Amino acid sequence: MERVLLKEIADVKLCIVSSSKKKECDEAVEWITLSSLLPFNGTGELLLSSEYYPDEDIKAEKHDIIMRRVAPTGVNYIEDDINAYVYNNLFIIRSKENVSADYLAAYLDENIEDFVKGLARGSVAPSIGRKDLMEIEIDLPGEREQNAIGGYWRSYNAKKRLENKLTQLEQIKNREIFNIIRNKDGGKR
Least crowded by CB within 10 Å, which of 3, 11, 96, 103? Predict the structure, then answer.
């Protein structure tokens, strides 16, 4: 297994958006924000805004890895084509041809928190800079193993998202059943 630096196998962009007051912004666009990034590679609601200028170099693409700069605890991976831009204080990590994006997302998701803890200098909310991120050492197995690990990571996260959705639906069902019983009983005990 080869050990490489992230900068050798990926391009890393720290996203900084510009106010649309400086440039013309004709219509609202969707933004991936900190609150859009959910656990288990989930994506919540995107921000729709014309307040910021959508530079093409911060547009999310399929297979991009999105990571928080402040208090990163994992990553999110763009699995499908998306018409959205990446907002402030988020990194776009775009793997180069010699590495599986799925694998890189899995590796970073598993290891980024420990790496950031190693950099922490008494900060309340640890953060990571672009230069430090680019110097992360990545264990890089062969293509077959990368694909297996990346595929497993994506499947595991999809399973966890479905389990969370099932739990939410069961809670709604239980609440509705309770309300039906309570209303049928007239609220009397």
Answer: 3
Write the DSSP string, 151-164: HHHHHHHHHHHHHH
In this structure, the number of other CB atoms found within 10 A of the CB of residue 107 comes to 24
CATH class given for the domain over 2-157: alpha beta
pTM for the predicted model, two decimal places? 0.86
Q: Which residues of 60-80 are buried (b: 16+ CB within 10 A; e: fewer)?
A: beebbbbbbbeebebbbbbbe
Query: Coil, strand, or helix at residue 143?
Result: helix
Q: With contact defined as beta carbons under 8 Å apart, do 138 and 107 qualify?
A: yes
Q: Which residue in 8, 132, 11, 148 sits closest to 72, CA to CA?
A: 132
83 pLDDT more than 90: yes
Q: What is the pLDDT of residue 127?
A: 85
Q: Using an 8 Å Cβ cutoff, are 135 and 184 in contact?
A: no
Distance CA 165, CA 40 (A): 12
Contact 18, 58 (CB under 8 A): no
Binning the chain into helix, strand and coil, the percentages to the nearest 5 are: 40, 25, 35
